[in-house]
């Protein structure tokens, strides 16, 4: 579906009956999404062609971006992602990937080093900062709009994938040395003046309940039930017991049943057709009551992660210790705001500040000077 | 869309029974005690089916799967960090385990011993065994932005290839390998003679890469790959498309429209191609698996939702068994993680369900 150029300019005469897309128009948006056809999408059809063969109007692209961001926010999609409005095109600057596994491992490390509260705060800050960046895409500032114009013309915009500001760094670790629990990962909350408001209170709040929901009033740390090591149960015994409830009936997975019952000698040292035979076949584990569990190394540790529980101070460095400074120097600043278009906030009169802070202008007292940058965000 | 409408409708007892196992599949006994990060069936070189699963509890478990659907726990190994990936050697004598402790260990099943075979400067996200006519090696991809190839007998890699970003997903089907990284990078490698970069592909997806799986053409040679992202979307991409229209993307793992007109969007956690039919399965954070025919561009089946997301899936070597792991994937952050929720691995007899759509 192609975005209607006339609608974007506010002059489409066809309204809801237009055969082109009116992004943001409630009626059409509902229609498209309710189609729920797996193989097509308006946003993707609009971005067919990719770089070089297709040069969308920046206004169309801004509309596509707005639709993408709204769908992402409303859909509860994983927000710590890079993004491009056009497939096969460069990434939109200042959006970086952090995977679920990276965040999770960060949490496990924090738990192991008793710094989980710091993790909760840092991941919360990262999510909040990312939400603000997404939010700004919906109502682009002139700076962001200039980025959109560049993307529309097929240019690579500033940095692309280098130096993610919200990523992880890992200390080097040499082969054959004992695994150290000091692997310090860092959420460096690199900030960019083009995107980060100095006054978050004025930002629209993230949609509730979509991600890292605040609907659970209890403290996040306490609801995170790491504190209960469930490993004390005798895993070995459950494993060595053969569940008798399964019928030994005909094969359900098809194929020739001849494979079953053959010698397992290829895989394991002995022919193991019964669990009892298996335990006999594993003399290397004198302490083990069964097959799973009872590893000597896990016996000595109460930690869920099998890592040292010794609190290591640097493991908690979520961007607060010295190793962050080298990292932040690499934070790219692709979009430098043109300060000259703004009026310094100190130069504005109280009446002007009030007007710019209000939801709507009062007709008789619209300021003539440009607003301060802080009041635009 | 097909749904099994008979489930849970008969009695309250049946519905409570079915919430954990709505598809009424075979449950693997003694499942991992934390989320399952990786699953793999033994290769076709042995007659039996063995299933291995790596998990966030730092352990890798091995079961024998009988034709009856019964699973027998065989053995277990522990590493120093959560497991992120597992794979088999081609002769099914060894299992490789990639961990957050920055190592990959080789587990020799006959002796039940492990030995370190690879190291990175950051957690190792992927490991794949490469069996070439002239060499065999282990390929490991890490968040340290490198791809390494290991002889497994020497402590230094045969080859190290720098990646533009952290490795998020990879797949190998000799002579092709594909790696998806952070920052929407996609690189295809050719493995003949010596692994080398073959092609960088502009990502057909707009958000973070999450899983990739190679598919074959009619001549049984690797032809392209399916790429899944956090945006509930899969791209079918040919390395050398005969026609630009051969490449396409499709939405999956989304809810049907909510009252405000927007779909809930879930991550695609894993993609697997059926070894016989060439159709594919996807699993997602929405707790569903779906079967697809990419050539007919249709959905073959969609499951009922599980209690938790499905993190990984795999087929056994002859395509009779579909295994899927139900456990939390961190897609909604730590607030939605509960260690009290049981993790499941289910086995489904799937050969018929994955037959391609007949050309009627």
From TrEMBL, chain A:
SUPFAM superfamilies: CCCH zinc finger
Region (Disordered): 181-218, 234-257
Protein topology in the membrane: Peripheral membrane protein
GO CC aspect terms: nuclear membrane
Domain of life: Eukaryota
Listed GO MF terms: zinc ion binding
Biased amino acid composition, Low complexity: 200-218, 234-255
Predominant subcellular localization, coarse grouping: nucleus
PANTHER family assigned: NUCLEOPORIN NUP42 (PTHR46527:SF1), NUCLEOPORIN-LIKE PROTEIN 2 (PTHR46527)
Descriptive protein name: Nucleoporin NUP42
Source organism: Ladona fulva
UniProtKB/TrEMBL annotation, chain B:
Highest taxon of source: Eukaryota
GO biological process, one term: cell division
Compartments where found: Cytoplasm; Nucleus
Keywords: Cell cycle, Cell division, Cytoplasm, Mitosis, Nucleus, Repeat, Transport, WD repeat
InterPro entries: WD40/YVTN_repeat-like_dom_sf, WD40_PAC1, WD40_repeat_CS, WD40_repeat_dom_sf, WD40_rpt
Pfam families membership: WD40 (PF00400)
Cellular component annotations (GO), alphabetically ordered: cytoplasm; nuclear envelope
Sequence ranges of the WD repeats: 76-117, 117-160
Family as reported in the entry's similarity comment: Belongs to the WD repeat rae1 family.
Stated name of the protein: Mitotic checkpoint protein and poly(A)+ RNA export protein
